[in-house]
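Try this one yourself first.
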């Protein structure tokens, strides 16, 4: 588990507009520059936000980068994914 590496990749994209542009344009290429496992890379590429947060990545950082990459139009998707484990059983 490389929580620090995931957070470093996300923080760099959030704090440097050119890096956010790179993440949007070529996420696999951008993420390959960080010490992140293939499994973790896939979690980010698929925006499996609930699992990423379970791995102790900052939820606020993740939300900020998700919004930066995907825009506000996909916020309902983020909320659906982040809350998937907190629903009462049917």
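Now uncover the answer:
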């Amino acid at each position: 588990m490389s929580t620090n590496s995931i957070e470093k990749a996300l923080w760099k994209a959030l704090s440097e507009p050119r890096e956010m542009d790179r993440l949007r344009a070529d996420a696999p290429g951008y993420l390959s520059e960080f010490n992140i496992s293939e499994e973790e890379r896939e979690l980010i590429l698929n925006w499996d936000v609930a699992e990423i947060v379970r791995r102790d990545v900052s939820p606020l950082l993740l939300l900020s980068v998700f919004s930066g990459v995907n825009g506000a139009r996909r916020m309902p998707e983020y909320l659906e994914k982040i809350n998937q484990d907190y629903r009462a059983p049917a």
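Discussion: Helices lie at 3-15, 17-25, 27-31, 38-45, 49-54, 59-70, 75-82. The chain has one domain: 3-86.
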